[in-house]
Amino acid sequence: MSRKRNLWSRRLCLALCACLTAWTLSGQALADGGESKEAPRAAVPIFMYHSILGYYRDNDYCLTAEQFEGDLAWLKEHGYETVFVSDLVAYVAQGVPLPEKPVVVTLDDGFLNSLTTVLPLLEDYDMKAVVSVVGSYTERAIAEADPNPNYAYLTWEDIRTLSASGRVEIGSHTYDLHNLDGGRKGAGRAPGETEAEYQAALGADLERLQTLLKERSGVTPTTFAYPYGATCPEALPVLQALGFTAALTCEEHINYLTSDPAQLFSLGRFNRPANLSTEDYMARAGLA
Predict the structure, then answer these.
(1) Contact 131, 170 (CB under 8 A)
(2) pLDDT, tens digit, for every residue of 224-234?
(3) Which of 12, 103, 169, 278 could make an S-S bridge to 70, C-beta 3.0–4.6 Å?
């Protein structure tokens, strides 16, 4: 067995021990009275966007800049404040207070318009967002050298610029698992793949992006977004071994946070379709 495989095995063992400890403590808490001893819950809706364009495109999840701005304006008018996923982690782990009406804005895939269109709007409305990038998309954008915000993706330098703005938290959306190749759906376990094979493949992919982001953009994500929302229980120890503290799914529900850190690895989000008005979307998310 190689030195790298030994290192990865040790990481997984440590993560599994952490999981077992958490489960033991959780079971003890339930035996002692469960939720009656929990801190007051924080209700946190999380919104999921993708590409924000300067024009209308007949695509379910490509919004115009005007639609995205309309959502931000509605949130501001109704007293909601945007926070990072890391703020949710701090609330759960350390009791760091959240705003009275917190929400999280997320954008998946790492489109260039997260920099050219989204960032200026975040600045205008004094808001924040989480942008989860796909490493192979970034490398393709650099190779193609065609920075058209209507279809291009962020470069490593663009990601650095977003992070440095203080308005954007960078998340991982895998290096190259945002696809349906080989029977695997996103970061899920492929048919016939053993648990060890799956965890080794997922770990190698995620570690590759973590290394690239640290070396070339100066950031190390602690939030993971599952491509296509394809969650897998065997992914948890891999995520924890790599230092992730939260994971975003595509399950549509408001997140009611307590002091249980397990919640942070199954955060629900409301996908934003282009064919809804702002008011209808906010109603769908339970805010109106």
Answers:
(1) yes
(2) 999 999 999 99
(3) 278
